[in-house]
Automatic annotation (TrEMBL):
Gene that encodes it: phoE
Record protein name field: Phosphatase PhoE
Gene3D superfamilies listed in its UniProt record: Phosphoglycerate mutase-like
Organism from which the protein derives: Paenibacillus cookii
Phylogenetic placement of the source organism: Bacteria, Bacillati, Bacillota, Bacilli, Bacillales
Keyword Membrane on entry: no
Transmembrane spans: none
Amino acid sequence: MTTIGWVRHGITDWNVAKKAQGQTDIPLNDTGRAQARALAERFRNETWDAVYASDLSRAKETAETIAKALGIPLYIDERLREKGCGKIEGTTEEDRIRMWGEDWREFELGIETEESMIARGTELVKEVCQRHPGQRVLLVSHGALISTLLPALVANMGERQHLHNTSVTLIRKLDEQWVCDLYNCRRHLDAVNL
């Protein structure tokens, strides 16, 4: 069966500032580019057949770095985009509390639903499995999308720790069920002190 390696993009200035990025196209910063290079170096010792990425530049550049290093095809798919964050994009938690109060999550702010993210993500995973049977495929995406989709795919996934930038999570199908073999791994960053 197909093995999928979920990768969160490298870090951006908005990640550092704790701003909600959503689908705003914020590029990697220099640290994010270094993280992507370290990840590509890690993957040189592994076998991967293809990489798919969100069309947002922070994920796309991370994936391009990997694809170039490994000499594998890169496919861009907007279904891997981050959660649409509506009116909160570009804001910090403090900004949101100042604008809408402590219960800002109760307001209709145009934020994409979990159901919408799960639908588009599940559809993409199904297509990847059909196109790449028995292969190992990387999906470079975003923290909220990956965190929302994993429990929908993998039974007993539950709540896990916050996904780190360029972390790797491996899932594979076993008897028609997805299992998680590795979660939120960032050992490639330890070697280069990022």
